[in-house]
Amino acid sequence: MMTRLTLCCAVAMAAALAASGAAAEECEGVGARKYAEPVILKKADDGATTMLIRSTGSNTMIGAPGMTGDTFWQQCTGFWTVNADKSGSGAGSCFSMDGDGDQWVISWEGDNSGGTWASVSGTGKFAGWQNSKGTWTYGARYGDGLRLTLWKGTCGE
Questions:
Q1: For a FRET experiment, which of 34, 71, 148, 154 has its CA 20 to 30 Å from that of 114?
Q2: What is the pLDDT of residues 104-140, one digit of tens each?
Q3: What is the DSSP letter of 63?
Q4: Sign of the CA dihedral 97, 25, 77, 87?
């Protein structure tokens, strides 16, 4: 059931974003991911809490060179600090693989409103994407740790 909801939300958001008409070198997409319970690593005297965060989900590409509509699985891990005032920030990486077995690794950083991502490495259709980079923002949040992430940038060589 959760998989169908995830795919349904991703496809609906992908269709909405496709209407924006991204140019060939631009890419954008939507990710539907489920967050695992965070692992608390440190609680500071000032009220800040640093934790390990993990998410698993799928992304649908829109406007990527030769890849519009492609979906890929993604596992993300990172560190996130929540301050006493509930503001937060962190950084990490995501490991992705599409249905053809091609892999893509990105790094990310950001805060409660969103952030940036940059390609680290890739194989197959993602080979040569080392200059790919962009921004991400949070989309809708659903119960049980499910959240949408909207991203865009420049993909390809």
A1: 71
A2: 999 999 999 999 999 999 999 888 888 899 999 998 9
A3: S
A4: negative
Taking a C-beta distance cutoff of 8 angstroms, is the pair 10, 16 a contact? Answer: no
CA distance 145 to 70: 24
Distance CA 39, CA 41 (A): 6
In this prediction, residues 80-107 reach a mean pLDDT of 95
For the entire predicted model, the pTM comes to: 0.80
- Cα distance between residue 134 and residue 118, in whole Å: 6
Tell me 143's DSSP state: S
Tokens of 139: 């989309």
* Full set of structural domains in the chain with CATH: 2-154 (2.40.160.20)
Q: What is the mean pLDDT of the chain?
A: 83
> What residues contact residue 3 under an 8 Å CB cut-off, 6+ apart?
none
Query: What is the rounded CA–CA span in Å between residue 134 and residue 87?
Result: 22
Copy the structure tokens of residue 3.
């998989």
